């Protein structure tokens, strides 16, 4: 988005002129705050004359207010991005939830947000077994081309992010603090590594501290960006169950990994399964269940938003360019399995784009993936 | 059943005059083999003139054939019983399956077959964890008044039977060999202990050896006698899954206890849950699910079979006598929890009958059970 218009929207938010849900709606509908004032549709958007006055007032300020100025400065530094709901880089599934954030502060690779995502969440106080299962699912699904989304918390979240980094694949961490801060501080190194191939995301103002009340809102982003949520170890009353319930409300697939009935941290997962979550004991079961869904979601993305974004940089997975790339990738895959590294070498493609193409080919049954190596299906 | 008539039916079977399903049907419909010949309904029962000839021939034999003579002799020894499908002592739920056995050879306490049963089955090669979970479920459900049915096999079956014996409650073992043999031989002592308060059951001819082909038929009796089947640890292709599928076909509740995804013996249980079995991680969840079902089944038992059996010894749980006993029991239970031993002392009742009454009171919400002690609900 044009920096001066972004500046206006940020300023509008900084002045507290609008409730956040209304801000998101205006941002979706209008190219700039000024346009909201000009538009005859303004009244139908639910903007009262008082609010209109406030918008006018905010726009008339000659000086860019301090937080907005700071945020713009931050976004100009390498690796930092502010992605508004008008931008094609905004995570497509997140747009569909009831209360999407107006914008996201992003560090790292914003393309990571366009790869089909699967969330892995669970207890901060997980068992060794839980940690290993999280790593197994995260690495396997990441190798298949999904981006793994989690909350950078201790325990299961950390295990999932770490395993994806180790597999040199894409993971996205959604924070309950400003994206320029890292919580817990022990995950500072992990956060930096995530940014190399994936992204850190927060809707909270830069500099915001981690607070208990931020986490449920953070969790709606994790599930909202994802095709499905996998819960691994969760106590009966826990944040992970909140994420899972949110995911159900958002019509996302919810998966739960069972465990020993003598492990109190299995209770939450077992309860979810009784409430309708799908029991999975291997990553391929997630892929089976989600396969059809991905195709469906991709169809949904092509019309009408992709058309609207035709003049913008291409979205992954759903345009002519990636069709061509998919054909090129297919020519480089034979019946002898090849590694992703080989394919990067042969195709001269970036990892996230390649992953997206491989996932698409796998889901359509054209190629199959075994232990991270690809062959004709 | 009258010994001379029983002798005729056994002889008919020994002569191989009839396929076993037809034998069961005739036994259900007619008071004696002779009656089948006299009855005008014979043709509608599907008995061809050739079969009729064979029945005539078998009945005309002056000498009781050797196996029949031996079986009758066996049944006269203390603790041994032959219970035909015409007898009120025949397990009521088993009557309802598609292919019930014509008769059962029973050792121990035949009343045990009239208590509401829950089956616990699982791997012969179970883990320590599985064994402990089986013991926990078996002892808890037995203390609540259910009879625990299993197959006397190594592993989960043995753990379940042992735990019930330890709790001095009722368990039923269904064998894949003649009831006068014990397989595996290592369970000889366990089998003897089961007979003290419970029963051993087989439909196979006395003296039959344990054979692989016997076990699926044996499993249909386990699930057929039970309100529900709990599977604890089962490999992906295992006898326990066959029992569970049979139970589903017989419209029994199927419960599966989950476990670590890294335990190959959890795979079968997890698959069952995905196929519709109820995940349980605590025995009370079985009771919750099965409560309404028990009431329903008991209703079904009162009409019309109980009426027909009015002249016979009383069936547990569904006659005037046990109503009176239930009221007596209720008077001995206050708000201070009492043990089952106290109640036996106060009411001068046998354990199986008391268990049945306590279960009925618990399911109707009149009493509650905590750690094996009963108080007003």
What labels would you give this structure?
9-stranded mixed β-sheet; 377 residues; alpha/beta; homodimer; 3-stranded antiparallel β-sheet; 16 helices
The average pLDDT of chain A is 85
Ranges of chain A with pLDDT <50 over ≥5 residues? Answer: 300-319
Considering DSSP H and I runs of 4 or more, what fraction of the residues of chain A is helical? 40-55%
In terms of quaternary structure, the protein is homodimer
The largest sheet of chain A, given as strand count, sense and whether it forms a barrel, is: 9 strands, mixed
How do the strands line up in the largest sheet of chain A?
1-2-6-5-4-3-7-8-9
Q: Give the number of helices of chain A.
A: 16
How many beta-strand runs of chain A? Answer: 12
Rg of chain A over CA atoms, rounded to whole Å, is 21 Å
Tell me, briefly, the overall form of chain A: globular
Query: Proportion of β residues of chain A?
Result: 5-15%
Distance between the termini of chain A: 41 Å
Q: Which class do the helix and strand fractions of chain A yield?
A: alpha/beta
Greatest interface (CB-CB under 8 A), with counts per chain: A-B, 19 and 18 residues
Strand and helix order of chain A: HHHHHEHEEHEHEHEHEHEHEHHEHHEE
